[in-house]
From TrEMBL:
This is Activator of Hsp90 ATPase. It comes from Terricaulis silvestris. Pfam families: AHSA1. Residues 18-150 form the Activator of Hsp90 ATPase homologue 1/2-like C-terminal domain. It comes from the Bacteria. The lineage of its organism: Bacteria, Pseudomonadati, Pseudomonadota, Alphaproteobacteria, Caulobacterales. SUPFAM superfamilies: Bet v1-like. Belongs to the AHA1 family.
């Protein structure tokens, strides 16, 4: 019998954007916008196969790098409070097996400068998959890309 293990990590990322909470939230709600800003680098392409942005809804997404499928993601929306809060789970699979399950909480807080965004990721990696570094890099890049998206 092979050894099976889980890894756990919590990441908290913050940004302040020069846009209203309504505008920042809309960039999460709009699938075309998400495909642009969530890709961490220019050689990564995200493709949403199914989208259902509502409480109880689900998205199916594929991530390609250099036109090769790297992983697939399933998002399940648990709590959506427009312009205020978003909570969802994200299951990432690759090579025919689950790699991680993450609980994601996003808070959109109005501040004088626009919106303070607080992103909390509670990551569980399956079978020793060390996902923390990938999430740290990918989400930091995506949040930086979101600033560019909002400036257009």
């Amino acid at each position: 019998m092979s050894q099976r293990s889980l890894t756990h990590a919590t990441l908290v990322l913050e940004r302040t954007y020069k846009a209203t909470p309504k505008r920042v939230f809309a960039a999460w709600e709009n699938v075309e916008a998400r495909e642009r800003w969530q890709a961490p680098t220019p050689d990564v392409r995200l493709q949403y196969i199914e989208t259902d942005f509502r409480e109880g809804g689900r998205d199916l997404m594929r991530c390609y790098q250099a036109n090769q499928l790297v992983w697939e993601g399933q998002t399940h929306y648990l709590d959506i409070q427009p312009n205020s809060r978003l909570v969802f789970s994200e299951l990432v699979s690759g090579d025919g097996r689950h790699e991680s399950l993450t609980m994601v909480g996003v808070e959109f807080m109005p501040v004088a400068e626009g919106t303070h965004l607080l992103l909390t990721l509670q990551i569980t990696g399956f079978d020793g998959a060390a996902m923390e570094a990938g999430y740290q890099y990918g989400w930091n890049a995506a949040l930086d890309n979101l600033a560019k998206e909002l400036s257009q």
